[in-house]
Amino acid sequence: MALIVQKYGGTSVGTIDRIRNVANRIKEQRDQGHQVVAVISAMGGVTDRLISTAQEISENPSEREMDVLLSSGEQQSIALLTIALNEIGIKAVSATGRQAGITTSGSHTRGRIESLDPSLIQEYLEDDYTIVVAGFQGTNPKGLIQTLGRGGSDLSAIAVASSIKADLCQILTDVDGVYTADPRVVPKARKLPEISYDELLELASVGTKVMQSRSVEFAKKYGVKFEVRSSLNQNPGTIVTEEHEAMESVVIRGVSIERSQARVTITGIPDTPGMSAKILGSLAEAEVNIDMIVSNIAHDGLARHSFTMHTSDLGRAQKALKPALIELDELGGNSSIETEAGIAKLSCVGIGMRSHTGVASKMFAALGEAGINIGMITTSEIKISVTVEEEQIEDAARVVHTAFDLDT
Ligand code: ADP
Ligand code: ASP
Ligand code: MG
Asked: What is the pLDDT, as a whole number, of residue 10?
């Protein structure tokens, strides 16, 4: 008998038939003698609809109230799945984030899991119940509801698996594993039998939304080995685990894209200490999330910085930068700001990059041969990212996927 945590995402519980399918899949585990704690997302599309409804009423709704609103999506789906389980003779109860003992901290709409007290889950397990836990939510020490950022049910599932020391944690979704690229974009993408935490973490943080990146970070920190597989078929999935030696023989594990990016370039910055901090500080204060940063050494004593962000942050960034630029000019600058929307980011990730050379040049050559112009470039130990025109991003992903022999 094993104790299994199964997480079912929005599409997997998106219709009544799908909810029944999930109930039957849980029953299969119960029939084999296993115990199941299921962590469930809101029905597909519900979270998005709740957000747009709030935005119809207010351009800037209170984040505290958004948490109250958004958490209701998961509250519906846990009750519906529990009803479906009861209907096929499975003894089951639902638990909200709070009832499951999930305490959060941090800001509303992007809470972090601070601790998890599994006593109620354990009590029910002792009585052989199946427990259906609401993903994406918890309460802070004041008792206020907080959600965990988009895709946050993944984090709930990993945290629950860790706290109850589950034998197995399965993330069940609408693809049967982690692929070398998003199969919707790169038809030749292949399913990976396994991937290291670090590689999936890098991929997730640059657009591979099959797992929320913070959930992978959590899994790595607490050593929660998990499997990504399909809720719709029985194909073997992808095991996500510690890296081992054999993994380094593959140079590039996967390719990821992020659309809707924008670039801001500031020129004429005085080449003196503290200027970058001033610019980035003003953006941080306006809660603009900066992604790539490239700065060029100055000539004529003036420097330039470029950075990328999500297009939706561009207006806020421009507004926040105005006073900072005036300050720069008072300190001897001759600053101006240039923006470009409609770009996208392509990233290649693989721990084999540490021990292989020529990876960047191969990527750039493939793009060049396909007539795709590269904008900005950044690298980390196991990742190379470039920006390209958004309309070329899908071609870029396919070309690079082929260049690194990921098609076959
Ligand atoms: P869920 O609702 O189950 O949480 P998500 O929509 O968050 O599911 O994540 C699954 C989706 O992630 C897939 O439908 C797929 O299009 C997308 N995806 C992006 N990159 C990848 C990848 N490398 N491998 C698998 N799926 C990917
Ligand atoms: N329902 C939430 C979202 O759509 C959480 C999740 O699905 O993981 O982001
Ligand atoms: Mg998801």
From this structure: 98
* Residues with C-beta less than 6 Å from any ligand 1 atom: 9-12, 41, 151, 173-175, 178-179, 181-182, 184, 208-210, 254
Residues 275 and 398 in one domain: no
Residue 318 pairs in a beta bridge with none
pLDDT at 130 over 80: yes
- Which pTM value belongs to this model? 0.94
Closest ligand to residue 212's CA: 3
Res. 320 pLDDT band, cuts 50 70 90: very high
What is the DSSP-derived secondary structure letter of residue 149?
S
Whole-number Å distance, alpha carbon 195 to ligand 3 midpoint, is 18
- Give the pLDDT of residue 56: 97
Residues 39 and 126 in one domain: yes
Range of the domain at 357: 344-403
Cα Dmax for the chain: 77
Residue 210 belongs to a domain: no
pLDDT of res. 287? 85
| Ligand 1 atom nearest 212 alpha carbon | 7
Average pLDDT of the residues in 57-76: 96
The CA distance from 343 to 308, in Å, is: 9
One domain, residues 279 and 371: no
Provide the sign of the torsion angle of the four alpha carbons 182, 185, 186, 187, taken in this order: positive
* pLDDT one-digit tens code per residue, 147-205: 999 999 999 999 999 999 999 999 999 999 999 999 999 999 999 999 999 999 999 99
Beta bridge partners of 337: 266
Over residues 157-168, the pLDDT tens digits come to 999 999 999 999
In a domain, residue 25? The reply is yes
Phi, psi at residue 121, to the nearest 5°? Answer: -55, -45
Please give the number of the atom of ligand 2 that sits closest to the Cα of 42: 1
- CA distances 173 to 7, 11, 195, 204, 232, Å, are 8, 7, 17, 15, 8
Query: Cβ distance 144 to 111 under 8 Å?
Result: no
Q: Give Cβ neighbours of residue 357 (< 8 Å, ≥ 6 apart).
A: none
Q: Say how many C-beta atoms besides its own lie within 10 A of residue 316's C-beta.
A: 14
Residue 299 has pLDDT above 80, yes or no: no
pLDDT at 84: 98
Nearest to 12 by CA among 36, 34, 39: 39
Ligand 2, atom 5: closest residue by C-alpha: 151
CATH number at residue 51: 3.40.1160.10
* CATH number of the domain that residue 322 is part of: 3.30.70.260
